[in-house]
Amino acid sequence: MRITRTGGGHGRRTATLATTVLTASALLLTGCSSDDDSDTDANGNITLTVADFGQFGYKEAGLFAKYHELHPKITVKEETTANEQDYYPKLLQQLNTGSGLADVTGIEVGRIKEVVDTQSAKFADLSKTINVNDWVSWKEKQATAKDGTVIGAGTDIGPMSLCYRKDLFKEAGLPSDREAVAKAVAGGWEDYLKLGEQYKKKAPSGTYFMDSASAMYNAVVSSSAQQYYDADGKPVYKDSPSVQQGWNLAAEAADKKLTQGLPQFTDAWTAALRKGTVATVACPAWMAAQISVNSGDSFKGKWDISRAPGSTAANWGGSFLSVPKSGKHVKEATELVKWLTAPEQQAAVFKAIGVFPSNKGAYELADVKSAKLPYFSDAPIGQIYAEEAKSIPEAVLGAKDGVIKDTISNQINNMEKRGTKPADAWKAATDSIDKALG
């Protein structure tokens, strides 16, 4: 998952920090594109293009300008597509035609398996440049082809937590201290729903325990090694224990009216945060900035962050940087990728926009290790996310993970908003997925 830069459903602003204190202020950005192709001028100056989607944070952290200072003959220009759903089909078209590719391309985690399986020969092998052991173990495995080539260097990851309104919890008679909340949901997402039932009994008027059951569903599935595919690449989502658990919990949440039924990043969702009607949000690392931006100054200090339900860590989101072999400056592009994904630069991006590093070396740097979120009652997010990141299971990825997840999420939304029966919603989801898989 990557937050887009538009002002609509996925809009996110730039988060800024003090030296060791993460804050979540914002500046909506539009993508910058270059009219120049990657080339070398008469003086030997090189322009490298970086194609990405949403907000990778490099410009916000000043990294492109810094790289130019370190390498005066290299200028880096970013070509950003606001929505990944628009970016990816264009990337596939460029790979298939062999034209229009940037020197460096971003790839979202939900797409990496398909790219590795079908397009790896078109990318430079980064294993000769980066040390894959620098990343959390499962991250670089996601970008590793069967022949051992590594086509992507990990950027961020999305370790899971639980964001909650401690003021609403107090009003509903629930524990509000982050350690007490973590204890209340220590048994897993089933305990989370039990807490929701308690909340509902004394819920402040007009508020709901969670934003959407589909968000909870994604958090549940993300904590499992087996999700939608098995190790042989066979779709097993219909029989996957994590999918079944997530679906059943989502159906229960919808039936018990514990959710406001708002798909995340829609206008209605952002409006609910602004009005303060949501008490909890399943919260991967990148979500905190979304909440703070959309909730606004009036709710600063009323939100807090606790560990995610259960004892199994989860990851939701993350991306990679890759270097197409067809580029004019593959060597220089590869060196840029190595630098951008090094610990110091990943820590700088975390400081700038709050996306959590996948490079383990960043976890001991002050900007990560000591990071706190004043908006979320000074929650020690550097510690929370680092601990989660170290124990996230190695998930089996599939070529159509994104399609399956989105289709199931849409049907969960139908259960919430339209009252669709779980059996009917499941059939609609599986029929649609089977057709997409072919």
Number of strands: 9
SSE run: EHEHEHHEHHHEHHHEHEEHHEHHHH
What's the mean pLDDT score?
89
Shape: globular
How much of the sequence lies in strands comes to: 5-15%
Q: How many whole angstroms does the radius of gyration measure?
A: 21 Å
Give the terminus-to-terminus CA distance: 25 Å
Question: Structural class of the helix and strand makeup?
Answer: alpha/beta
The helix fraction, in percent, is: 40-55%
Low-confidence stretches at least 5 residues in length (pLDDT < 50)? Answer: 1-38
Main sheet, how many strands, which sense, barrel? 9 strands, mixed
> What is the number of helical segments per DSSP (H or I, 4+ residues)?
17
Structural summary, described in words:
The chain contains 17 helices and nine strands. It is α/β, with parallel strands linked by helices and 438 residues long. Strands 1, 2, 3, 4, 5, 6, 7, 8 and 9 form a nine-stranded mixed β-sheet that branches. The radius of gyration is 21 Å and the shape is globular. The two termini are 25 Å apart.
